[in-house]
């Protein structure tokens, strides 16, 4: 019998030793909470496929953002469900539209205590459910959509948003949004670009949350899950166009993409742990099949380890509270 001279277990022997050699850390400031607000809702409504997540009323939204700030989260990402949808997504541009009103309320509530972000995309606002405007034959019109995104960016900036998150995967969207913001005197509003966004099955519960009316799919604008080189190109273009932060989405099935993107760019990298990733863990935990709290922290730690400095997650407040108390 020859005994090992190399013994990695020495560094795992006690909690103190494990803490000393831990390579990855996670802090509340790195977590961003996505939030949904429903126009003219009197009460918050549950989202059945996302236990613990609600469509807020304006009043419950205000309360929830105060709690999120108290927990120390790094930011909030706002989404809205408008009462009326149409082909152009008119609600997206109207100063009193669901999302722009929410931005105004939230910024008034939190000031600079956290970073207020808004999704910049048409899918919640269009009756056809696509992220862009359609031509007469029903295909998504890239360049007409860029004009719409410019209008939406100006409206969000006027409402006081700190960061816009263009998420429609139209070509040239970051340059268009940057130009619109700068032209309207909002050169201080930052852009978090959904740079590498995949056509993913893991967005299913989100579409319940925003009552998406999409028929068909988004494969002509979102990326093929098989591709990673394409993601590097998308990210490079977005940085060249002026993205301040680039995001990979979803997160858990795309950790290789997060790692490749982290080494390819010199801006902060975010990853979005999406609705389906949340729902999977919640559903398994509800069945008693996994330890929920450990699974949540392990998944967030893995996204950090892959290289994301910023994580959008529906567990942001809960995880932030836990991290603060531990
Ligand atoms: C587009 C948008 C989507 C999500 C965030 N922004 C939906 C989509 O692209 O189909 C998904 C987020 C999630 O699943 O948690 N506005």
From TrEMBL:
Binding positions for 5-aminolevulinate 1 per the UniProt entry: 207, 218
Positions that bind 5-aminolevulinate 2: 275, 314
GO cellular component: cytosol
Domain of life the protein comes from: Bacteria
Major enzyme class: lyase
Entry keywords, A to Z: Heme biosynthesis, Lyase, Magnesium, Metal-binding, Porphyrin biosynthesis
Any Pfam family matching the protein: ALAD
Record EC number: 4.2.1.24
Catalyzed chemical reaction(s): 2 5-aminolevulinate = porphobilinogen + 2 H2O + H(+)
Membrane-spanning residues: none
Active site, renumbered: 197 (schiff-base intermediate with substrate), 249 (schiff-base intermediate with substrate)
GO molecular function, one term: porphobilinogen synthase activity
Pathway: Porphyrin-containing compound metabolism; protoporphyrin-IX biosynthesis; coproporphyrinogen-III from 5-aminolevulinate: step 1/4
InterPro entries assigned: ALAD, ALAD_AS, Aldolase_TIM
GO BP annotations listed: protoporphyrinogen IX biosynthetic process
Positions of Mg(2+) binding: 234
Function of the protein: Catalyzes an early step in the biosynthesis of tetrapyrroles. Binds two molecules of 5-aminolevulinate per subunit, each at a distinct site, and catalyzes their condensation to form porphobilinogen.
Record's subunit section: Homooctamer.
Family named by the database record: Belongs to the ALAD family.
Protein name (Swiss-Prot/TrEMBL): Delta-aminolevulinic acid dehydratase
Organism in which the protein naturally occurs: Phytoactinopolyspora halophila
């Amino acid at each position: 019998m020859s005994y090992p001279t190399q013994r990695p277990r020495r560094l795992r022997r006690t909690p103190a030793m494990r803490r000393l050699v831990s390579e990855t850390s996670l802090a509340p400031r790195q977590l961003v909470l996505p939030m949904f607000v429903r126009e003219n809702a009197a009460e918050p409504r549950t989202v059945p496929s996302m236990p613990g997540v609600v469509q807020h009323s304006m009043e419950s939204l205000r309360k929830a953002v105060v709690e999120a700030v108290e927990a120390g989260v790094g930011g909030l990402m706002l989404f809205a469900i408008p009462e009326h949808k149409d082909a152009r997504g008119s609600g997206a541009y109207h100063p009193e539209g669901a999302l722009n009103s929410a931005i105004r309320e939230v910024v008034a509530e939190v000031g600079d205590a956290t970073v207020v972000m808004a999704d910049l995309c048409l899918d919640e606002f269009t009756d056809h459910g696509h992220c862009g405007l359609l031509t007469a034959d029903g295909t998504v019109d890239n360049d007409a959509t860029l004009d719409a995104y410019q209008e939406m960016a100006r409206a969000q900036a006027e409402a006081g948003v700190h960061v816009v998150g263009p998420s429609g995967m139209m070509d040239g969207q970051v340059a268009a949004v940057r130009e619109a913001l700068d032209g309207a005197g909002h050169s201080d509003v930052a852009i978090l670009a959904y740079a590498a966004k995949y056509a993913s099955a893991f967005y299913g519960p989100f579409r319940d949350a925003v009552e998406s009316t999409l028929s068909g799919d988004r494969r002509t604008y979102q990326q093929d899950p098989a591709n990673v080189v394409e993601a590097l190109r998308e990210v490079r273009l977005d940085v060249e166009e002026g993205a301040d932060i680039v995001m990979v989405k979803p997160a858990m099935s795309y950790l290789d993409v997060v790692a490749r993107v982290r080494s390819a760019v010199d801006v902060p990298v975010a990853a979005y742990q999406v609705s389906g990733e949340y729902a999977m863990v919640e559903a398994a935990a509800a069945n008693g099949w996994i330890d929920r709290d450990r699974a949540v922290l392990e998944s967030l730690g893995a996204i950090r380890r892959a290289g994301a400095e910023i994580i959008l997650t529906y567990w942001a407040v809960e995880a932030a509270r836990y991290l603060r108390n531990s």
